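hey m, so remember when u said the tokens were messed up on ur end? i reran from scratch. heres the input so u can diff it against urs
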Amino acid sequence: MLDFLSTATDGGSVNPWVPLAYLVAGVFFILALRGLSSPSTSRTGNRFGMIGMLIAVVTTLVTHDIANIVEIGIAIFVGGAFGLVVARRIAMTQMPELVAAFHSLVGLAAVLVGWAAYLNPGAFGLLTADGGIGAVSKVEMGLGIAIGAITFSGSVIAFAKLSGKMSGSPILLPGRHIINLGTLAAIIVLTALFAMAAPSETLPLIVAMTVAAFIIGFLLIIPIGGADMPVVVSMLNSYSGWAAAAMGFTLGNSAMIITGALVGSSGAILSYIMCRAMNRSFISVIAGGFGADASAAGGGGGEQRPYKTGSAEDAAFMLEQAEKVIIIPGYGMAVAQAQHALREMCDLLEEQGVEVKFAIHPVAGRMPGHMNVLLAEASVDYDKVFELEDINSEFAQADVAFIIGANDVVNPAAKTDKSSPIYGMPVFDVDKAKQVFFIKRSMGGVGYAGVDNDVFYMDQTVMLLSDAKKMVEGIVKALD
């Protein structure tokens, strides 16, 4: 049935069905991205992506001279089984570190493919008439290896920070910007020398370039605080796409080029949008300076100010008296895995006629869409979840702003204090709500910016100092 794909035309020209099949796969990938742009269509988007990948893989297998199809089949089975087990066992709260781990595998795959092409160029159709590799192919190969190595080592550090295996605090090396720029410049120079070198002189250059790329990936991520990971995850996603695209040029595979370009460009656009949402520079993210200032790494010390505390019963009483409640979730909700108890609380309030909405900040959590994923896991209706720009004006009409695990995204210092590291970042106007309940483990901790939050001390704020899940369960018990 697939013979028409595997039959090449005379003279070794490419079968026209092959690029057509890759084009169809690319269309499905585009439809997948479109579907994933909305929670309501995300399942369909995933299915489109799976269909596109199936077409691309089958086309590649039947149109290339595979040394041992049995071994490849076993590898696909083992990888698929591993993916199935991981998908069933990993909790949604662990999704950020899982994404970082998968990014590292994409980067490592690009490095291995690049080295395989270098060591056996004849198998990849890269040999020139003089028995070497063309300069253009060397540049493509070098870029793929370099970007893949950066993605791998950077993703490993991101995984370690997100999973708690490494401190989330920024590690600030002296002269880190000079070191980073120098290492990047060395990679560029080594790539150029590799492209121009004679075949007998290329091995030391490609080894040095690969090692330098692994090092710069490590250096780019360690200065970034663990709470700044949404932008980092998005940025590494972009890197993995560009690595795949570069390898696509090396292999002459249009499907890899299309897919890599889609992933790389969408990740870069998302990173830029998130940087704007946090009033940060996209260039500083790439340079490893994001969140690495001393102010961002510091603590939240200072004079003690009076604040009011309350209990779950107090919160339950006020919530059931309200007409409109807006809930702002943050990373604290994810850590406590309080999303299911929160949905139960919402159901009870709605049964009593209370209007409940969720407000999601673009950089809440540890990865893009982290809060949306957790709420979807808890079966919160999509039409109750709103982005910052769509709901911020409603806080003035809200009876209760219910903050669970968020901090900097509700800090009014972003609007008033020019000396604050978060000045200029759009935040929720929770100070305009009639009543504010703020769930927090203790008054000792601060957000990633390391600054105090005036919301804690407002007249209408009641601090609910407890584990988020236990506090919400207490509120549910009181409501029920």
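this time it looks ok to me. The CA atoms of residues 32 and 47 lie 7 Å apart. if urs says something different then somethings off w ur setup not the seq
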